[in-house]
Write a structure and sequence with these properties.
Keywords: Leucine-rich repeat, Repeat. By secondary structure, the chain is mainly β. 10% of the residues lie in helices and 15% in strands. Helix 1 (2-11) runs parallel beside helix 3 (27-35).
Length: 495
Amino acid sequence: MRWSYLLPEYLEYFEQPVPLGVAVVSSVCRVYAEYHSEGVLNCQLNPDAEQNVRTLQVSLPADAAHLPLVEWWLVRAPATQLKVSATFEGCNGTIRKEVDTLVNLSSTLTSRAVGHAFLLLFRGVDSLSLFTPLLALTEDIRAYRCLTLNSLDGLSGSPRLKILDISQSSVTNLKVLKACPFLERLDISGCTELAALDDVENLGRLRHVNLSHSGVSCIKALECCPQLETVDACGCTRLASLSLTSLSKLRNVYASRSNVTSLATLRTCPMVQEVFAADCTLLTDLDGLEELQHLKEINVSHSGITGIHNLGRCPSLQLLSFTGCKAVSSLDALNGASSLEVVHASRSAITSVRALRTCSMLREVYVVDCMNLTSLDGLTGLHHLKEVNASFSGITTLSTIGTCPLLERLSVIGCERLISLDGLEGLQHLKEVDASRTNIKEVSALRTCPSLTTLRLQGCVQLLSIRDLDGLNHLFNVDVSQSGVIPHEDLFDQD
């Protein structure tokens, strides 16, 4: 009926939960009432979820007495899949009663053929043992920042468990996880007392592991997890080796701020797409990565690498960042990187960007503070290039930039050897130029850049006038402070 299409609009008038008298009118009313931001009887439907799953929010002990009173609503047809999200605050004297209440709810739902799963959130608990009967029914456990939780006893009977988050706890071992064969996600980030992952061996469904800033020193046990897709070991200062071999589904490896010395084992993981090893000062080379056909992003900024050898052989590489790698002096290894879109080479020792002229998909280039770089000659005829930042470099000219027709943003702040903007003529899409603290003397090259909106020339003491920019109708943001331009000089001619 037509009125059903108007229900969502009508129900938005309710700032509080939709009145039960409205929700029970029909199954359609029920669905739209549960889509409401406040739901009905703490029960909501998520319109963005891939599946039609209802969520029941339960805060304990406050909602313990209320829960049996809403069972009728939960089993009322049509009874769709239900996720019960229960939050426990500390280990008070009523815990056993609250656990029994949820276990009884599960029995009722099961008897009425209502599919359901539990999500348990723990705050301030120091033990899971009291929750054992409920843990056996649970798929998702979050015990984030339970600082005094030092054991996972109680989980041994949790065969349904798929997600476990015990980040920033004091847990020292993961032995009980051997009895959790369906575990898919594990978050032990910040668990500084945890030194090994031996107990996760043979978790056949484990896909994502976050052990960042933990005390783990070896991750070799993860080689026995064939479904593994993501490993986050950022900030693991005791970790010296990735030890990840022959993981056919591994896609993302994050090891920034660790003490890894090599990435070579990743050559046996053919599906890897992202490798982050920024601030790994003991990492001296990228050997092994050149064989990864699906590799899209590499971030080794502020690491100890001395070169980027053979990365041009990675046909899928889109982003490369080696900012602050002062021992890297050449981009030649990128010759022929046909998919490369973004290069961060700031504060490196590169002397040329000529190799980039073969990177036809290049969109952004950052070579800030590269004092050995005297020319941008390699940035020629790049038809997708939109942004170049060569601030505080040694460049003396912009003569080749004009052959990049889609360029939108150019920054050459502090390039003291730059005396002219010649080369920018006719760039139809150029919107922003920052040439502050350069020695340019005039800006006539910009008068044929009709899309220019922002121009910063702060501290250009050799620049005496910007009259050449008369007629740029989109230019509204101009900064010529501390330059040689006469104060209050009119930019546009007055009638």
